[in-house]
Amino acid sequence: MARRHDYLQHTGQDKSRLYKDVLSTFNCRWNNLSTRIGLVPGKETLRQFRQRIQDLYGVTLTDARIAESITREEIPTDMRQLLNSLEKFRSAHH
Length: 94
Prior knowledge:
- The chain is an all-alpha fold.
- It has two domains: 2-39, no CATH class; 42-92, no CATH class.
- The protein contains six helices and no strands.
- Helix 1 (2-9) runs antiparallel to helix 2 (15-30).
């Protein structure tokens, strides 16, 4: 929101209109899960999630534990294709 505000501030728009536009853009992005993910800082979100799981259940979530719990079907197709390409590249150069 702050970056959008800074960007629009130079347009000379009235401040109340500027804030309405920024909030409208934010709300549209927040209402859609796929665009909402882009609004939150991933590392901080993961850190807080891990801490919450630790506090509630006494379980430590490592990167490996998270990766092991994900099934192939849960990985988006484009990500699977990227991982497959990286694996082919890795194995071809050894």
